[in-house]
Sequence to fold (357 residues):
Amino acid sequence: MAKVHVFNAGPCLLPEQAIDNAIEALKDFKGTGVSVLSISHRTKEWEETMNECRALWKELLHIPDTHEVVFLGGGASLQFLYVAMNYLEKKAAYLDTGVWAHKALQQAQGIGEAYALACSKDKNYSYIPKGYEIPTDIDYFHITTNNTIYGTEIKEDMDCPVPLIADMSSDIMSRPVDVSKYDLIYGGAQKNVGPAGVIFAIIKKDSLGKVSRYIPTMLDYRTHIEKESMFNTPPVFSIYMMTETLKWLKSIGGVEEIHRRNLEKAEILYNEIDRNSMFVGTAAKEDRSIMNVCFVMAPGKEALQDEFMAYAKSQGMVGIKGHRSVGGFRASIYNACTKEDVEALVKCMQEFEAKNL
Fold:
């Protein structure tokens, strides 16, 4: 079979090491004679894996003792509701930088008073708003650090005068993060740290219990901290795969090394977009994501879009079609995507340009 290069926006490309280990675990999990798909989450073997996964999170991100890590189902979209249920007492502010940021805001508005402090919809979410002032009379400020559809990213941990909450679904573990600056970091695993089916939440423990409303047991973060993410049956296989993915990340040098690799991959691809007469980037240069590279055909070349898509597919490129709401192309270059994958896409773009000059 010809080599394929996977640029899917999610579920993500996973490390071969993690997949190979999973193949064995599907047949026999840790010598139990039982598949990981059938293992009881109450066995000591599973508890060891759950503890290992949590420990890897803490080690790789240097998570302080003030915070705890939990794993839940329901996707990051359900976390939009968790956030408001656990933190919104009087008023909250959101940075509206894309579809998922806006959906998070909408869920909060169903619980209480929440508003967009700043928004980049005026230019189709192609930039990160700047120059706004965070008020001190809000319960929290919510940001979405990476916007998969539009290819923009907040690349630094801001100083915030109120509790800071971040959806880091698509850039977690791609760069160092100062976890101490956040009351909550959450996201789906399926971009960088595992398959679909599990979310992570990194929670500052003393930030909880400050709202007066009743919180249903399953929606209360304290429930899952107390029960170590096993109040109910957890998404066992997804957590297993997350553990194997993080073991791979540790083996190559951790978050610091993957950040170096991610910056290198992004630079190679953005340089080609800026050089190639066939294409143009869509995100403001200062806000370009190192995870999701979005681009379109250059002015006057729009009629060639389907032809390039077909050519790219013939060269083994998978998943580069842009989100249906914006069109064009999107190459998601998450952690397990290699420099060689990116170079193959660049070569494809160069060959297409040569054929159409």
